[in-house]
Amino acid sequence: MNALTRTEKNRIYDVIVIFVTLVSLGFPGSYAGFIGEGAETAAEYAAFVLQAAVMLLSSGESFQELRLIRMRPRYRSVYLLTAVFFLESMLVTRYPGAQLITCLRFSVTVFFALWLVERYELGELLELVCYAQFLFLAASILMIAVSPQTAFDRGSGAFIGILPTKNTAAGEFSCGILMQMVLYRIRRDEGRPVGIPFLTLLALQIVLLISCRAAGAVLFAVVPVWYILLIEKRRGVSGRLRPGLLYILVSVGFLVFALTLLPVFGPAFALIGKDATLTGRTVLWRRIISMMLQTHTWTGYGYEMFWRDARAVALYHSGFKRDSWGSMMTTGAHNVLLEFWLNTGLFGIAAYFVMLLDATKRIRELPEPQYLFCSAFLLHTMMHGLTERAFGTYNYFTLFFFMAMGAACQKPASRGRIRRIWDETTYSRHS
Predict the structure, then answer these.
(1) Which among 80, 109, 299, 365 has most CB atoms closer than 10 A?
(2) What pLDDT digit, counting tens, does each position of 116-144 carry?
């Protein structure tokens, strides 16, 4: 690396960021069936190694200056969450080897997300995300030619591209549209026009999102886009949302409403052909709450380990009649808070809430780009997480969420330069 110029190093890091983001979006996905079943695992571990490598190599010019992690006080609540997840998971898990790998991969993703918001201006970072999104879209569309039966769901005919289900694909396109619209707002405020490639990518994502036939994912994109394009500017700085507090209140309030008041309206929902159980979700949630109040209440079963723990899954299944949907379901809690409870217990949820409140407590002081990104993505994640799982060991939700937390922590008083440069002269990729 010493033989490379600073500009060349920056370009290499940009390529690595695009690749890591592409893998987080779900690539190679269904292509693994043609390349080899180990392709997806290989891509994920390659992304893991590259994340660690780029953080290490960019930390200094000499061997003595290299640091994998540079601790900064402003990220204290993010560090707290990472430590709580890691330590309690290792203490309670029945699979210490697998748990250690899971926690290491999650922790590196968190620190990589913070590294991204430290090194890049937010507009530049979102441009790299859009490059990755373009590659993902190209791969998804190409799957139609490679294997049409793979690109579309056999039951509904909905487009799924290279992902396993229509909801997964729709969630990805929904998030991609949101990232583009945040970038559009940033460019518009800077007086920079968007070009034909940008508009083409946006149009393709909208078409594919509609093709997924998932109304929820459309809503998850429309609401935050509506806010940042039509509402945020009018309200001014004093009228900014407090997305951390809003996230907590809505997430908890929705569960209370769904489990107490929603059943009351069951007959009314039936008249219009709707299901008051939210397609069986409330039944699932009641069983999870009942089970978690009896065992592992405070600690959970280890981050991302509940559905991999045979005893835990058997305990969950025991609450349902044999051959019922609940007795066979192993795909997640369909709610972010309940998924956290299963995996990290009430201690983990407490650390999650502390991070949300601490990171966003001075959000009205943020520069406009940081506020737009943080508020838009937290609105998106909040709505998505009401009825679906979101976080994982390594996926785009996890990566983008902690980017949002990092951006929220970038207070003007302590911010300094966002992008870390290699010499005293600012490097501009637009020069």
Answers:
(1) 109
(2) 999 999 999 999 999 999 999 999 999 99
